[in-house]
What we know:
The complex is a heterodimer.
Chain A: H1 2-43, E1 46-54, H2 61-85, E2 87-95, H3 100-112, E3 116-121, H4 125-137, E4 141-144, H5 151-154, E5 160-162, H6 167-181, E6 186-191, H7 195-210, E7 214-220, H8 229-238, E8 242-246, H9 249-261, E9 268-270, H10 277-283, E10 290-294, H11 303-316, H12 324-344, H13 352-360, E11 365-366, E12 371-372, E13 384-390, E14 398-404
Parallel strand pairs in A: 1-2, 1-3, 3-4, 4-5, 6-7, 6-8, 8-9, 9-10
Antiparallel strand pairs in A: 10-13, 11-12, 13-14
Chain B: H1 2-7, H2 9-37, H3 44-63, H4 73-100, H5 109-134, E1 139-140, E2 148-151, E3 163-166, H6 167-189, H7 191-201, H8 203-208, H9 213-239, E4 241-242, H10 246-261, H11 266-290, H12 300-314
Amino acid sequence: MRLKKSFSLLSAGLLSMGILAACSSDSSGTSSSGGSNGSGATEDTKVIKIAGQLPLSGGVSVTGESLRLGAQLKLDEEIEKFKELGYTLQFETYDDQSDPKKGVSNANIIGADESILAIVGHYNSGVAIPSSEVYDKYNLAMLTPGATATDVTDRGLKTVNRIVGRDDAQGPAAAKYAIETLGAKKIFIIQDKTAFGTGVAEAFKGAAEQLGAEILAFEGITVGEKDFNGVINQVLSKKPDLIYFGGLYSEAGIILKQAREKGITIPFMGADALDSSGLVDIAGDAVVNTFITSVAGSTASSESGLKFVEKYESTYNKKVEAFSVYGYDTMGVILNAVEQAIEENDGGLPTREQVAEKIRATKDYQGALANVTFDEKGDNVNAKIYLFKFDEPVYPGVLEGEVSF
Amino acid sequence: MFLEMVQSLPQVLIDGLTLGAVYAVVALGYTMVYGILQLINFAHGEIFMSGAFIGTALFILIMGMSWASAIPQIIVLILVLVVTACITGVLGMGIERVAYRPLRSAPRLIPLITAIGISFVLQDVVRFIAELSYGNYIVTGPSMFRDQITFKASSISSVFNDASFKTSFLIVLVIAVILMLSLDYFVNKTKWGTAMRAVALDRDTAALMSINVNKVISITFFIGSALGGATGVLFAVQYGTIDPFIGFILGMKAFIAAVLGGIGNIRGAMFGGLLLGVLEMFASSNLSLLTGGVFGAEYKDVFAFSILILVLIFKPEGLLGKPVAEKV
């Protein structure tokens, strides 16, 4: 009894200490930012913050982290330039955990911080859409490096922009390649019943039918399962000459593996959610003869891209992922707009509205990979869909071609 | 349409039996614990998942050693199976000690809740460890037993298409059958098995007959969890890729298989698991044929479970259960 009591006392004590610690870390956080403000005042510089809202934990944390590092790299390059203009640049990242609720609650915190002028993020369309409603209330510009759902920009918000292609361009681009280059006539479609998977598969289906291909089936699977032999048996009996898959790389890898084990060697196609080293990890040798469309291009295709890769890898001692360069270019577009806004203000601190206007007005910004010009909805008119092919189990695949739209 | 279904039948049966064997062995764990404690151990699916991860980790470890190539893969597999089964067995005993024994006299809803709690804890612990050591929680093990065997069904009758399967299919099936038969023997023929059945029948009377009830329950958990962990290894060998959330769906289905066969009845669990696997595979291969494309393969679970509901309405004690059954 006595032991129990002391134990509960102990745990209560620990808990209250934890709370105190949380409070103190919080207050030290504000005091340090206050300190930097204070020191800024003495040096007569003002702080401009750019916020990042990216999935730094969870299933796509690899991509989120690579976006963060890419953006940080660009910011570090520009710090000196802004110091001359009289501003201290800071990059503050928030973890949206790929979770809409977390994204929105972060968005409210970001909105309340007056020194934040723009946002790099989000990666997930599902998080970008509700969070951008909050940013719009604060007139805070958001530039996404990876959210591809059509709804992100189709709502016509003035503050929402993206530098990569849209989902409704991927399906048709894949269909064109499948039918014209690979000569597919009978196609078997598998989709994972999520908004992304079904959307991309339906866009592909429509375009493929228009181009004269026969769609043998439009089958669904359940995310999280590991046995797809039922669907693969249907593929066996229908004998298509191409499989199109709308969904994520974890299921795609397993389907590929199980299909190749049953002797199905026909080409397998999918969208940008397959553009991950995870696909190769899971499928192994079975990945051969797989084609993916992606909104992320290959950094190996241009000189500035190669330079970026070299710099990224020497700075962080890490390999670049498909989206790293878009983190870099997103930050580039934002800082470019902030700089213009400062100039227009004769060196004064620009407002959020001015920055948002300048970002939307970006014309022919040449980043390390992306060339950015926004249309009236905030989509990059120069965005392209890239097509990669896997000839051997090595990520990334070989760049086969690109389609602009 | 009918012809097409018959043609693919051999392949469907083979794939269905593999899946069903996994369901069946996992279902054994549910059924044993329920038989003795009248408790549904919802953490059992997660024990299965932990087994899959421990097994894969052991495979990666052993395959990385230079001497491993000298010994046949089947020996490696048996070694990994035994070690994993022991670890998950002890894990199961630990869970029983921590989460169920203190609540043994509590209302039945309470241990159900701790079971669900334990399952979430296990999911996230495994996820944490996997992310820490591998960088990603979707883990792919080394590929084993990849040889293809063609089953010449067309030579039996020309209406069938040939079917093919991997060597791992045979291994999963054979090991699952061995596990099930040895459990059946253990429960029905040995002293400890008799004690388990006695505890299942009446815990208090069994205690009066000088049976150490706590020990019997611990052993039940050990055996059930060891079986679950071993099946996890088999699953990892057959399907290659695992993540911390495989236990949930699979555990649900195995639980339902146990109910279908008559919960508390070991042979019922085996039968229910195999039946559910075959039904599910049949549905996902043929559903769009049967309905003319209205329902696709994504409705396979609806199909399988509708049949289960029908069975349970007309035979609520399960297919092999007796209305007042001797449990375990």
